[in-house]
Sequence to fold (494 residues):
Amino acid sequence: MSTSVSTLSTMIEAIAGVVGKGQVITDAAALNKYSCDTSLMTPRMPDMVVKVANTSQVQGVMKIANENSYPVVPRSSRTGTYGSGIPAEGGIILDLSGMKRIPRTDTRNRWVLIEPGVTFGELRDDLAKRGMQPLNPLLPRKDKSVITSVLEREPVLTAKTECDEPIRTMEVVWGTGELFRTGAMAVDTMPAEDIPDKTKSDLCSVGGPGIDWWRMLTGCQGTFGVVTIMNVKIFHQPLKQKVVFLPFNSLEDAVMPFYTIQRREIGHECFLLNGYNLAAILAESEAEIPELARKLPPYCIVLNLWGGQFFPEDRVAYEEKAVTEIADQYKCAVTQGLQAAPEASERLQGMLTSPWPGEVYWKERQLGGCLDIVFESGMDKVPAYWNLFKQLAGENGLATGSLGLYIQPRQRARVCHVEFNIPCDPQSAGIEKVKAFHKRASESVMNAGAFFYRPYYDWADMIYSRSGYTFETIKKLKKIVDPNRTLNPGRINL
Fold:
């Protein structure tokens, strides 16, 4: 049956027939809230917001939009950091935040089924009842969708190789409205939570016929499909843990201890912060951040010694001995506290599996906004990139002492996720200058050899101009799964 429409009013009427009249929002004040997110990207008003409650409704909306070549931008929350949820060409904001089911948790195989509206706080509370914990990135926003975080390739805090890629399997609605399931979830069309009981599939296998679908769908900013349910990895809560710090005066001095800790597989959560970022997390108030940053070590490895389900006391004792040996080997210190923040260990221990508790996000506490440069690199190359970044910042009149650094080892430091953070005031007269510096610094670091694996901001142009064959392949796949360019047109140059 055709759903071709000729006017905006008939489009609204057709979609209301799928989701209900009250779930289609056209009020200007409400639409304005959806015109932006927590990024500093230029706002753009949608024509309507459509709230969906289940996969069937997502399919119905997508079929109508596809037949009419009408833009659809999926969003699970308004906390997007990179502007990918802003409708570049208007159209529909597909609001998935009401899809909050957590229909099944498998503690044996360590996975949980979640819908896109489930936030980190909600998942943490649900898993805690079963002695499990989510695989969090570093202090996510409390209303951030877990699925959105995974699709944006935010790295988890643990460096354990088996935890590195959180996705197991998922259900996705293509731009045509067709339903697709990846890996072991593809064995049947029954509700995903029923598959383990009624088939021989445990939903764990990510493999399947054809290409590696889940890798194609991450980082694509909703330009290929809408994920309606996902099976993500989780982990057991520890029976004992202790956070310790390895402080350094230079980033270069941290490289070999960092590698050695990971090679010996010490600790569960592990990451490195510079003094400014650590102060932004630990300071009691925004006003205290600059002074605390000056008192804290310039760089600090944060390591959570972790005792799991078996012999937790012995495990933590072994890890304490090992990290002490590493500190002795490289003539550096290992402490449970920091002189400027004596309760840092206890505070961070409680924060590692929780979202950021404050109303103002930790990166934005000082000035109200933040721009990030995000890439992957070997740890040994990061000091050169960091020095280049600081040099450029100084040349552009930015205070280098207020720049943030975050390094997250992945797969035991086979590679590292790296962030350079630029705190900024979105309302200041100099914000355009900061944005120009962000673009220049991004390109300079990319030209120096850093691997940019998220095509956000202006990076899509930079990335795809350097990888023509890959981009041509992406465009071919887009034509197959979204032939009418319905999903998030304008993103990643599609």
Q: What stands out?
A: Residues 312-329 form the longest helix (18 residues).
